[in-house]
Amino acid sequence: MRKSILGSIIIITITIIAVAVIAGRSWFLSNNIPKFSSGFVKVVNIALIKPTFTAAAYHKSFYKFYFLYSGLPSHAQKNITSDLNLLSSEVTDRTTGSSSAFSVDFLAEHLKTPKSHISVLTDSDADNVNSLFFVNGTNKYDILILGHQEYVTQQEYDNLKHFVANGGTLVLMDGNVFYAEVKYDRNTHTITLVKGHGWAYNGKSAWKSIRERWENETSQWVGSNFFCLSCNITFANNPFQYKHHEEQYVTNPNDLILLNYHASTSIKQSKTADPVIATYELNYHKGKVIALGIYSDDIIANSKFNKFFDSLVVKYAPKSPTFSIRPIS
Question: What is the pTM of this model?
Answer without folding.
Answer: 0.85
